[in-house]
């Protein structure tokens, strides 16, 4: 009975603390056969069947599950927020890259245009067309 009481109070000395016949036997230092032949086995069985009997490890496990679920919800929420933030950052970088590429291309075209105009001015045989004309004419 002392071994059973230790397990019920959550103070095991030999086992992991779960309330099983095997653990009661190990805590008490008796064989399973001796335990089941004793009147203590039937008494313990009746105690555990009683609805008011609360097992400390069961309460502890319920609390742990509750805490783990809360932690999981928090982690999922944080992960979703972080993922959204990363996607926004990626979109911003993509826009910057596109803008830089267009700026670079525009600058290269201006340089080439200036170079060609200087070449045309040097040779004097090129006539500049109206830059607003569409060339359809």
Description:
The protein has a domain at 2-53. With 137 residues, it is an all-alpha fold. The radius of gyration is 41 Å and the shape is rod-shaped. The protein is 73% helix and 0% strand.
Provide a short characterization of the protein structure:
The chain has 137 residues and is an all-alpha fold.
> Which ranges are low-confidence, i.e. pLDDT below 50, for 5 or more consecutive residues?
none
Rg result: 41 Å
- Hey, roughly how much beta strand do the residues contain? under 5%
SSE string: HHHHH
Overall residue-averaged pLDDT value: 84
Number of helices: 5
Count of DSSP E strands? 0
> How much helix is in the residues?
over 70%
The helix/strand class is: mainly alpha
CA(first)-CA(last) distance:
110 Å
Structural key phrases:
137 residues, mainly alpha
Q: What layout of secondary structure does this protein have?
A:
Elements: H1 2-8, H2 21-28, H3 32-37, H4 39-49, H5 56-123
Helix pairs in contact: 1-2
């Amino acid at each position: 009975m002392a071994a059973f009481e230790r397990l019920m109070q959550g103070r095991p000395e030999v086992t992991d603390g779960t309330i099983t016949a095997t653990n009661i036997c190990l805590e008490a230092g008796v064989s399973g056969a001796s335990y089941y032949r004793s009147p203590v086995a039937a008494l313990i069985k009746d105690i555990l069947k009683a609805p008011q009997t609360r097992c400390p490890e069961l309460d502890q496990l319920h609390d742990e599950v509750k805490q783990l679920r809360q932690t999981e919800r928090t982690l999922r929420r944080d992960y979703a927020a972080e993922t959204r933030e990363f996607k926004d950052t990626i979109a911003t970088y993509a826009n910057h890259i596109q803008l830089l590429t267009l700026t670079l291309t525009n600058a290269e075209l201006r340089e080439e245009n200036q170079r060609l105009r200087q070449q045309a001015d040097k040779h004097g045989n090129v006539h500049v067309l109206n830059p607003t004309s569409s060339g359809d004419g």
